[in-house]
Amino acid sequence: MDNAGIEVLIFDLGNVLIDFDHTIAAKRISSFCDKSPQQIFDLFFASDITTIFEEGKIPASDFYLRVKEMLGLRLDYDSFVSIWNDIFFLSAKNRLLYSLINGLKGHYKTALISNINTLHYEYVKERFPVFGVFHKVFTSFEVGAIKPSHLIYKKSLEALGAKPESVFYTDDRVELVESARELGIKGFPFTSVEQLKKDLSASGVNVN
To answer: Are strands 88-89 and 19-20 parallel, antiparallel or unpaired?
Structure first.
């Protein structure tokens, strides 16, 4: 297909194809408990509870109950879900990348690998038309593993029928790119659409 043998283009979702800010939810949730926004942020993201939710090991209802107990939360389930989900937004960068991938999907197999929980996934799928540019979407809650675990990459490659050296992968988190590289995937940190185009071109992908 090209000189470098790239056949599959894999992208991350968060802060790549769609932006998000967890502090938005933390600030709003702080009005319904006795924790500060920073304490809430730390409890969510330094806690195993969010990890096992993203791995699909507990349902959304159990996640809510654990969070409610952990924070002393004065919110019902539906109100919590509304706040928990309302953290995503599209930027000019996101739209440029969407357009780029849309132009490439006719020439390369395109895929998404995302660390995401079922609530966020359903919310994004319903409100943002970003998944349509991918031939395959791999979510951590469905695979049962989160990046940087090699397992999520290996299962994705198997489902794609792709060899690691035939795959280009980009992610905004360097440690996740490094994990993919350990498997032989051609990984590049995502910093901007212009840099991504350079990385794609250097890998033999025609971006014109």
So the answer is: antiparallel
The residue behind tokens 């933390």 is: 26
Q: For residue 153, with 0-12 CB atoms within 10 Å meaning exposed, 13-18 middle and 19 or more buried, which class applies? A: buried
Mean pLDDT of 103-111: 96
Residues in CB range of 134: below 8 A, 6 or more apart: 11, 101, 105, 110, 111, 112
Place 3 in a pLDDT band, splitting at 50, 70 and 90.
Answer: very low
Per domain, the residue ranges of the chain are 8-19+90-202, 22-85
Beta strands in 18-105 (DSSP E): 19-20, 88-89
pLDDT by residue (tens digit) across 129-141?
Answer: 999 999 999 999 9
Fold of 22-85: DNA polymerase; domain 1 (1.10.150)
Q: CB of 17 within 8 A of CB of 94? A: yes
Tell me the CATH number for domain 8-19+90-202: 3.40.50.1000
**Which pTM does this prediction carry?**
0.94
